[in-house]
Amino acid sequence: MLAFDLLKTDPDSHARRGTLTLNHGPVQTPIFMPVGTYGTVKGVMPRSLEEMGAQIILGNTFHLWMRPGLDVMQSFGGLHGFEQWKKPILTDSGGFQVWSLGAMRKISEEGVRFASPVNGDKLLLTPEVSMQIQAILNSDIVMQFDECTPYDTNGHITTEDEARKSMELSLRWAKRCQAEFTRLENPNALFGIVQGGMFENLRQESLDQLVEMDFPGYAVGGVSVGEPKDEMLRIMAHTPHRLPAAKPRYLMGVGTPEDLVEGVAQGVDMFDCVMPTRNARNGTIFTRWGDLKIRNARHKTDHQPLDTSCTCHACAGTSGVSWEQGGREGFSRAYLHHLDRCGEMLGPMLTTIHNLHYYLNLMQEVRDALDAGQFTAFRAKFKAERARGV
Amino acid sequence: MLAFDLLKTDPDSHARRGTLTLNHGPVQTPIFMPVGTYGTVKGVMPRSLEEMGAQIILGNTFHLWMRPGLDVMQSFGGLHGFEQWKKPILTDSGGFQVWSLGAMRKISEEGVRFASPVNGDKLLLTPEVSMQIQAILNSDIVMQFDECTPYDTNGHITTEDEARKSMELSLRWAKRCQAEFTRLENPNALFGIVQGGMFENLRQESLDQLVEMDFPGYAVGGVSVGEPKDEMLRIMAHTPHRLPAAKPRYLMGVGTPEDLVEGVAQGVDMFDCVMPTRNARNGTIFTRWGDLKIRNARHKTDHQPLDTSCTCHACAGTSGVSWEQGGREGFSRAYLHHLDRCGEMLGPMLTTIHNLHYYLNLMQEVRDALDAGQFTAFRAKFKAERARGV
């Protein structure tokens, strides 16, 4: 099932505030979805995700197909029971991952043939197989199998003709996905994915045909695939707000905090990105006042938490009171700098909690601003604060 | 300060039940102390340690002296504030670590000269310096600086003459530690360490002279240093129960669950060991029914938690209800096997929680048995259950 209630629209932008109801519960939008590739959001426990307000997480179909495999997934009745996450899950189609195998895969009308990177087995991923795997995973949102049109291939920038062929293949695959999803009587929701590369006319064609197929939700794919920032912003400005207003819109694989706020303004409801978790493990921290590199020697003796306004477990400890509000239970920059220097696991554990909390809290602030009719003021404040510097 | 109240003694063994009161609070004995070398018990958050009932943890003087260094420690007023742990801390003297540097260090009457493994600086660790560092760390229990007599050196088993010289050096250093600890007006408690290698007569001499110096607590050092198990058990049977009954007794660096229960029977009150945390990271799990290797393929589809009787977060989730009691919120062996196979951080995070909980809960069961006057029956049950197999 999927129900989408549009609660409020911003008069000065395409931003919207909504509630998405899925088989495993409701999701307040706009929302950021942490990425849990192998059935775990890297470095964080499910209970911590719940505590920081995560409402829906991702799983990767391709990875979970390879390991632990479908027999294990089936025995648990899907991904929820396996990873002990009770709220909604969205799974991708595996298309992006097989595409990323490069020379290891061959794309045809039928689907993608490839050798398993785990054991070398020759495998075939088709729209039908993707639907079958995602049915076993029992994810609340199933993504159509598509071809992610590259921005460039070994320096050759994708031409309009190439982008059209790729987009049209994805459309034919969308139809096959819809048919198989229906045949499987999957009780969850299938999203179509708009492709078309960096060409607005192709994006429009893709969008029009997908809308005709009447999916319960739509994604914008093929962005954040190596293109320059202004190209991404151009597509972000073109496509999302042209999608049906009554249905949820998901911008795949985006992005920085600034990208998220801009995406909301362009009418996006859902985002996912590995950036908060990956950057946390590399010591790059997102804060209200800009980004911070914990490896920098200037943090060696700093008693302040990562973000003085933050109430996450890393910054505020079990008290939940931020440094600004007088809380002194959090972990200091000096301590996190030390953990990083010593290669201690607790370092990425705490920075992952902080970065995810930052993203989730940012979206909470976005929702609060939309609820209050203050989104324009929020955008200005967000931009000024991020530019201040830590 | 240190107060030790002996609550109960077992009529059939040397086992005792006590309460140790330190500057940062009380500790119920017998107790296991998780090891937090660099100011973090590897892979686990302070809040998780509290939830699983940890009452006191260790810090390593040598490591913390090297990184983050004394300036940082001093600015935090000690180790507690730096690592956000509010309960008692015990620090070792650094003696074992400098001794472990092998060719990199030179031992003299004055102390140990060595090159910093972090930056190559030429350093000198003496009884006085160890006391000064531990005063800055503000640990509740300070260990004397000693020479850990090796069992063998490159295959040469330590002779009685060598063990005597080493033991006598440690005794002279014990006096210097006591003088410096007093001069520093350290408000915490200093423990003396019995040495003497594998020789009962030397152990007795060491013990007698340390008792004469009237420390508030005593440790047995120089065991679990590579000697055969029966040698360790021989010293464990000789020394602990000969220490003053009114003072706490700490067996350093020991050991397996079986060693802990045997140690309690021999009159030991306090234990520490890296085994639960290190083994967790290597996928070796302690359970009531024996040990388990999570990498073993037989766990691939097993829905049971690591230990069906366990209430830790890994085995029982947020419910705290064990599998045996009908709880189904825990993480399965299949899931933990998968995390291990994929190299996901959540694997060691959960197995570390489990193994530490196992050790801490074992000591809780030991204390309960002693309180109930059932220690002999407990030992038999413990042995039978561990032998059953997982």
TrEMBL record, chains A, B:
GO molecular function, one term: metal ion binding
InterPro entries cross-referenced by the UniProt entry: ArchSynthase1/Queuine_TRR, TGT, TGT-like_sf, tRNA_ribo_trans-like
EC nos: 2.4.2.29
Domain of life per record: Bacteria
GO biological process, any: tRNA queuosine(34) biosynthetic process
Active site (record annotation): D92 (proton acceptor), D272 (nucleophile)
Region (RNA binding): 253-259, 277-281
Cellular component aspect of the GO annotation: cytosol
Pathway membership: tRNA modification; tRNA-queuosine biosynthesis
Quaternary structure note: Homodimer. Within each dimer, one monomer is responsible for RNA recognition and catalysis, while the other monomer binds to the replacement base PreQ1.
Official protein name in the record: Queuine tRNA-ribosyltransferase
